[in-house]
Amino acid sequence: MLRPVATGIDGSPESLAAAHWAAREALRRGSALTLVHAWQPHPRPAPSGPADMTRRSWAEDLLTGVSEGLRAAHPGLRVLGRSVVETPVTALLAVADEAALLVLGSRGLSGVTGYLLGSISQRVVSRSPVPVVLVRAGVGTCDEHFAAPDGISPDEIPQVPYRDVVLGLDTDKPCDELIAFAFDAARLRGAALHVVHAFGAPRSDATDPLARVSGPELLAEHENAVVATLRPWCEKFPEVPVAETVRRGRAAPELIRASASAALIVVGRRERETRFGAYLGPVAHAVLHHADCCVAVVPHA
Predict the structure, then answer these.
(1) CATH number of the domain where residue 87 is located
(2) Tell me, what's the pLDDT at 277?
(3) Closest CA to 291 of 146, 25, 112
(4) Does a structural domain hold residue 144?
(5) What is the 3 state secondary structure string of 278-300?
(6) pLDDT band with cut points at 50, 70 and 90 for residue 141
(7) How far apart are CA 53 and CA 58, in angstroms?
(8) Total domains present in the chain
(9) One domain for residues 1 and 132
(10) From the CB of residue 291, how many other CB atoms can be counted at a distance below 10 Å?
């Protein structure tokens, strides 16, 4: 049985955008959608509800309303609602244990491209056992597709192609989970996969073959490494067109630049703990805050 796509809702515009993105993803995968709303008892009424409404009844009404709206907007979608008395981080991590993918909402930065990653999202992304997708408020179907003729919505012309899926690739430590997720995301959308690899100066380690080359030779070595890393995946997903960008520089700016024309950008998060808690990594952190499209963070060893 397929694991569901899961998302958390709290009534905010960003959580509703995430719920609709998660609904479209569940339909692409042929799976169910699990909605979770976490709340905690409080003597005062819910801040977004009428004064005479308890938090429990407000939570139940929210879950019912969002579920009905999703079913109406996405016919054929199976929606499972879950209202839990728990903190949001604990509730989201618990539902992630049973899901294939967790989708969270994130506020856009006013006047600046990117996301505002709150403390809840930060902790969940850093600890989730499954990939997490961050969706900004206002993101809809049109943002995932190339422009349709005469401004017609892609909903009206389903064959309007999806924008590329972008993958950030490190050839020194290629990760199967990360590459598989990106190829599968492109396959599900019938989209191209744009692989971005950025490299810096060669290491001084004499055992490193790249330490003895520079200039055009160094670029060629990295291009060959990218092709070699992707070859088995291209054979496994022959229906996915693949384009590579290999440049000298820092990974985060290159990925952020590529996100401007993408439907989804995929980055990795190494599963490890530091003395300050779960580790997100500088590239994933930068992409999450500045990408111009939805971001998938895939945990890996």
Answers:
(1) 3.40.50.620
(2) 54
(3) 112
(4) no
(5) ECCCHHHHHHHHHCCCEEEEEEE
(6) confident
(7) 6
(8) 2
(9) yes
(10) 26
Examine the pLDDT at 50 and tell me if it is beyond 60.
Answer: no
Contact (Cβ atoms closer than 8 angstroms) between residue 182 and residue 133: no
Q: What percent of the chain has pLDDT over 70?
A: 81
Give the integer Cα–Cα distance in Å for 10 and 58. 11
**40's torsion region: left (phi>0), alpha (psi -120 to 50) or beta?**
beta
Residue 77 sits in which domain range?
1-139
Q: How many CB atoms lie within 10 A of CB 48?
A: 11
Please say if the pLDDT value at position 271 is more than 50.
Answer: yes
Pair 265, 208 in one domain = yes
* Strand ranges for the chain from DSSP E: 5-8, 33-39, 79-85, 101-108, 115-116, 132-136, 164-168, 193-199, 242-248, 262-270, 273-274, 277-278, 294-300
Distance CA 285, CA 287 (A): 6
Confidence (pTM): 0.86
Closest CA to 38 of 76, 74, 91, 80: 91
Identify the three-state secondary structure at position 212: helix
**Kind and range of the H or E element at 218?**
helix 215-236
Question: Which three-class secondary structure state does DSSP give residue 67?
Answer: helix
